[in-house]
Amino acid sequence: MGIPEPTLRRLPLYYRIALEEKESGEENISCTVIANKLELIPILVRKDLQQTGIIGRPKTGYILDELIQVLEKTLDYKNNKKAILVGVGNLGKALTNYPGFKQCGLSIAGLIDSDEKKVGDVINGLTICTPADIKKEMRRTRARIGIITTPASSAQDAADMLVGAGVEAIWNFAPIRLSLPDTIVIENVNFSVSLSVLNSRLLLKVK
Amino acid sequence: MGIPEPTLRRLPLYYRIALEEKESGEENISCTVIANKLELIPILVRKDLQQTGIIGRPKTGYILDELIQVLEKTLDYKNNKKAILVGVGNLGKALTNYPGFKQCGLSIAGLIDSDEKKVGDVINGLTICTPADIKKEMRRTRARIGIITTPASSAQDAADMLVGAGVEAIWNFAPIRLSLPDTIVIENVNFSVSLSVLNSRLLLKVK
DNA sequence: TCGTGTGAATGACTTCACAGCC
DNA sequence: GGCTGTGAAGTCATTCACACGA
Fold first, then answer.
1. Does domain B5-74 have CATH number 3.40.109.10?
2. How deeply is B139 buried, as exposed, middle or buried, from its count of CB atoms within 10 A (0-12, 13-18, 19+)?
3. Fold of A81-193
4. I want to staple A150 with a disulfide (CB 3.0 to 4.6 A). Which of A50, A62, A154, B41 is the partner?
């Protein structure tokens, strides 16, 4: 049940390519084209796309409009969801200003920081609030997602606060494992993990 | 040949736990303990650790010092590698100030930005240089890794520049697929992919 | 001929089952 | 009893092989 995660991680890449092709005036796209651009093999792309339910036509491939639509539906890009971000450091600011999220159905609608010096500052049109305002902000924004960009040491507190305020999902950029009720959807972004993969590949190459 | 990627992505998590346990005075650690902390199953952890070559002892588990050492070796944490970062926006600054990389064998040793207004600024002790200085910076720092935190539109240029300057690996935070010679090790961090996974899980939960 | 759809085969990763040790 | 080590079984993902359609 549900789409396998490896497939899920490739669909956004197909989506981007679909938009690019659309942009350059194409009406159809084949798995071969997508595969070439991503250095994958066509059959893998075809199997992935089968998960979305789209059906293509021999020779021509898939209709671009249809592909874009079906990916938007599968990835839930059109159903705009609000998020509250906790921890407005450089990373938090970077995410707040990141233009690509809206396309993915996310808008950051509230900012929280425990540093009194930051409270009241405005980033990208949003005023930074104190942790005490979390519930008010949740009501105001009707956010369902919490984003944690605090230092590791305060990430669990941030998580507890967000869960207490009624968040359904947490997108965690702090390099620790959070303990959360298992009703909460969690996605971790851990730079050190990514770096370690790079490290190991580099080590392998040199040997 | 080489450690499977799923395992590779879990090893850094084990490493962190090993350090924490060491910190709190433990001398040994078992797979069960690690597994519980990460909500994994012990046998998976054991198989992963087997990839590093470490051998444990029944009842006691693994010797912590040995585990830490063997993970550092496998993940190449002790062989300090220099990196040059291109694109000193909020994300670039966040990475430059991120304290956890040194532990993973990475130090950001040079900063490049094409914005004349930024050139000369100092971030975390590093002076921002212009793209024209890339080769000089490479010689000075003896960097092997290039980090790209530019907007998508200039990421390919940044990559070409880094490759031209002799970088061996690229850690790419821009949301596009770079075309690179296949001698270059590449690791992409794509926030939209991670977000899409979150989206889909949330969608699934609600249904 | 090129590209899709389907089901089967391969391969990779995870999990199980059992043996041995402290 | 708790924990590791090993090989076998099982599951999931990828790849192949074939049939069909434009």
1. no
2. exposed
3. Rossmann fold (3.40.50)
4. A154
